[in-house]
User: Fold this.
Amino acid sequence: MHEAAVDWSDPLSAAAYKAWHDHLSHRNDVVEPRGDNLLTLTTTSSDGVVLQESLTVRASDFHPVKRRVQFDDHEVVEIAELAYEVVPWSPAVDNWFEAITPSAGVATDIPSPLLLSRVVAVTPAELDEAELRSLLALQQLHADTERIEVVRTPKGIQVQGVVDTDERKRQIDLQLRSIPHVIPGISSYRDLDSRPSAQSEIHSLASVSVDAQPGPIEKYCEEKGWDKDECRKISYDLLNSSTIIRQESHKIASLLTEFSSNRPLTLTAESMLNELILQHGSGLTAAMQQQQRTLAISGFTVSMSEQNVTAFNAGTLVAVAQHNLDLTKELTYAGDDRSRPAESIFTDLVGSLAEIGTAASGIAAAQQHASVSSSHDPANKR
Assistant:
């Protein structure tokens, strides 16, 4: 505990915490109210083996009551005050202490009012909030489209991945270290280049040539007499919108599956979950609108009519989004003699986009109903 500047004669010392805090060259501080008239200062840093420390004090007199130290090996040490009060001296108080015997000459040790515990796991509610906070942080940093993975473990949330530059790595790392129970593991391509490369498993390469024919959309454009650049733009817009539709649908479905209604969430976690779903829903809507405009330019109109949405769920949304992407690939990629006419694929694509709209509406309605039900459930107000 020397690295954490914990003095066992006074482990809750604010001065010791300050000494550790002030020697850090890279640090980030967050102060949060904890209820019951408590304030918690959390300091995260990339210096040394201590990833994060927090000190909780009473807001009324700033008396320290708890200290938490998180190491880079995922171990956590918590020091908490069991009791603190000033009482008048009376004969009854003598019973709290052992008598001084003449043979001893000194008083026996007074039982410490401090409790030291080594924590090997955090609560599911804390993990929920940590995971959702990390996902929101990545979303705000526009890092959710990078090669980053959020992994939930019994000891905390590990965020791993590779980004382009060291500066980008520091930006994401600093934001994630401010979140309790989150352990960043972000690398840059420079980090990867500095590591010894593994022995290649590829022993030989075979080359083949394919005599590809124009894709269905190219034939369609030729028949319409459209410019090749315009045709390429239509192909790009369709592929781009389909890819985003698939990504956003998958993220919404993953959130709904992991944080299902069968598992109660704290109000804070539920609020963050709704915000994430709302943001991904906005991305999904924007991509759908882009594809709708592109289909209209191509001569096909999508009717987003209201349908019965009660049968749709997260799995349905992913399935129809994947079908939409498959149809776009079929339309734009190089074809052969067995390729379907573009008009047939366009027609299926129109129907696919309408199905996505219906599935998304069904999920939105279900979420709204679940949110209203949860707000009236006293067991969830914690």
